[in-house]
Amino acid sequence: MNSLIRQPGIGITGSDFVLRQKHATPFQPRSFLPSLSKEKKPKTCSLVSVQKSLHLASLCVGNSRRVDLVKCEAYDADKSEVENGGGGGTPSEAAKKAKIGLYFATWWALNVVFNIYNKKVLNAYPYPWITSTLSLACGSLMMLISWATRIAEAPKTDIEFWKSLFPVAVAHTIGHVAATVSMSKVAVSFTHIIKSSEPAFSVLVSRFLLGETFPSSVYLSIIPIIGGCALTAVTELNFNMIGFMGAMISNVAFVLRNIFSKRGMKGKSVSGMNYYACLSILSLAILTPFAIAVEGPQLWAAGWQTALSQVGPQFIWWVAAQSVFYHLYNQVSYMSLDEISPLTFSIGNTMKRISVIVSSIIIFHTPIQPINALGAGIAILGTFLYSQF
Ligand code: 3PG
């Protein structure tokens, strides 16, 4: 589940890359690296977009889900001008709708391309730890270059920012590597069907770890999500326990990442694009030693030679494509988040998974039985139902 949070003092958007003039300050730092400042930034009212934060929005407000949803819906109301035309249906509203449509199409397309190249790489080079590391390294490098060339303004951070980012980065790292391990073991479609159950994990983590309560309609909506995923899992022709568990761990990790994000970003003024960039850099630092320990340069080098000899030079382009598209789809998803309501975003994310599932089944000729497809359909329908509550 994804959502946005409007909250004072936090600026998380994905659009400042494009609209950097909006955020530009007269002072240009000498270093392109994120500057460390001990100054406390004054709180300003700004937009926060946090991936998978429809549920998270609830965390900031209180213990009652219903009360929280009022907050969420208040934000929805703000954005309804964008989404519903504010009752006007003016040409500018039509242009906004067209822009959102373009964001969604771009986000899904980039994600589909990422998933295809990621799977092609993993088929030829079954080392998910280095593959995950390369994705983060590529995104980090792209952002460092953007800061160095002033395409994007480097964020001004303090030690508290990095401290609060740490648990987010740990969860992001686990979620990312677990999803990649999953996709190295099972079909892309299977991983994404299991990942479509993330809203159910959001509810369960909130209920059992945070003690939040939800209306019964919410609990009822997770029955088809879990039931559909279970049906898909038991009827999956190429079921693999590591692949299944990787997707499940990714679900839990991304839910926790969002909880930590919500808490960690409170009161900070780093924009969404730069927040995501810092997250990539810190995740890269966390993941690299584990990747070396789990797989290591010897396996990587031998596997690289094997992949090159089997696939040819285009293997290098596959690796580059999966790395670049990983960063780009995350970037555009944040740009979408900046423009739409949590509800619309969550539905968009589910639609994204449908795009990935269908395209990967077609491209990789994934064998699928009717009962297996039925399970996927039930799970995705459950996610839509969850979005309605
Ligand atoms: C990853 O590698 O981080 C996952 O593929 C992310 O998947 P998602 O953005 O669709 O949740």
Summarize the model shown.
The protein has 389 residues and is mostly helical. It has 15 helices and 4 strands.
Please describe the topology of this protein:
Blueprint: E1 3-8, H1 20-23, E2 35-36, E3 45-50, H2 56-59, H3 65-83, H4 91-124, H5 128-148, E4 156-157, H6 159-185, H7 188-195, H8 198-208, H9 216-235, H10 241-265, H11 272-294, H12 297-311, H13 314-337, H14 342-363, H15 370-388
Helix pairs in contact: 4-13, 4-14, 5-6, 5-11, 5-13, 6-10, 6-11, 7-10, 7-14, 8-10, 9-15, 14-15
Bound molecules: 3-phosphoglyceric acid.
Task: Please explain how this structure is put together.
- The chain has 389 residues and is mainly alpha-helical.
- Strands 1-3 form a two-stranded antiparallel ribbon. A two-stranded parallel ribbon has the order 2-4.
- The chain is globular.
- It starts with a strand and ends with a helix.
- The N terminus is likely disordered.
- The protein binds 3-phosphoglyceric acid.
- 3-phosphoglyceric acid binds next to helix 6.
- One of its GO terms (molecular function) is organophosphate ester transmembrane transporter activity.
- This is Sugar phosphate transporter domain-containing protein.
- One of its GO terms (cellular component) is chloroplast membrane.
- Keywords: Chloroplast, Membrane, Plastid, Transit peptide, Transmembrane, Transmembrane helix, Transport.
